[in-house]
Amino acid sequence: MTEPADLPFAPTELATFVAAKLCHDFITPAGAIIQGLDLINDPESQDMRDDALNLIGQSANKLVAIVQFARVAFGAATSAESFSGEALRQLVEDMIKGGRATMDWAVTEPTFDKPAARTLLNLAYLTVGALPSGGQAVITAERTAERLVLKGVAEGARARLKPEAAVGLAGERLTDGLVGQWVQPYWLWLNALDAGGRLDVEVEEGRVVLTAVLPG
């Protein structure tokens, strides 16, 4: 198992990658809100007022969803030490709303501590992300006396991992490609490692499986 001292990044360097990814996620809905406000304030665009209001509302909801997801998936969130499975499901559902893939949240565990919650959120989101052309993602959690197994199974005609994501999920430093496509998969791998567990990845035609095994 890779030890923290062997990781290829200083904490500050990894923090810059995460911050850049979050800023990229925030800027699209924030920019759309500004665009909607500009239309409302433009005397020559008053016939588009209803469209502008719809754009502002949808973009504001998306921005809130991203912030709420990021607080748990990338940060310490609130002072709460545990999160309900239902609350985590809602965070993921809000993030993937409007996408082509569907998610079956088959998680029966009632609560998760912070490390497990971070791992589960990122694993679920990346599982859905492996279905850019649609399909079904099934998310499960199984706890025994010794371990907690979090699994995401993506099945669809074009289920796949981007090259950058595959590098991140293997815990490797990106040497070519987009950092924004790499850092969240790497963050998932790192969280599983930091919790004392491991991350397994299986890829075959039409199917991607992400499995995080954490101490119970």
Protein described:
This protein has helices at residues 11-41, 49-73, 85-96, 114-129, 163-169, 179-194, and strands at 82-84, 101-107, 111-113, 135-143, 147-155, 198-204, 207-215. With 216 residues, the protein is of the alpha+beta class. The chain has one domain: 2-Layer Sandwich (Heat Shock Protein 90). The strands form 2 sheets. A 5-stranded mixed β-sheet has the order 2-4-5-7-6. The protein has a two-stranded antiparallel ribbon with strand order 1-3.
Blueprint (SSEs and pairs):
Blueprint lengths: L10 H31 L7 H25 L8 E3 H12 L4 E7 L3 E3 H16 L5 E9 L3 E9 L7 H7 L9 H16 L3 E7 L2 E9 L1
Helix pairs in contact: 1-2, 1-6, 2-3, 3-4, 4-6, 5-6
Brief account:
By secondary structure, this protein is of the alpha+beta class. It is 50% helix and 22% strand.
Overview features:
Heat Shock Protein 90; alpha+beta; 6 helices
CATH-assigned homologous superfamily: Histidine kinase-like ATPase, C-terminal domain
Number of domains: 1
Approximately what portion of the residues adopt beta-strand conformation?
15-25%
| Lateral arrangement of strands in the main beta sheet | 2-4-5-7-6
Counting H and I runs of at least 4 residues, what is the number of helices? 6
Alpha-carbon distance between the two ends: 18 Å
| H/E element sequence | HHEHEEHEEHHEE
Radius of gyration: 19 Å
CATH class wording: Alpha Beta
Helix amount:
40-55%
CATH topology tier name = Heat Shock Protein 90
Secondary structure tally: strands = 7
Main sheet: strands, sense, barrel = 5 strands, mixed
Average pLDDT works out at 92
Return the structural class: alpha+beta
Name the poorly predicted regions: none
CATH architectural group: 2-Layer Sandwich
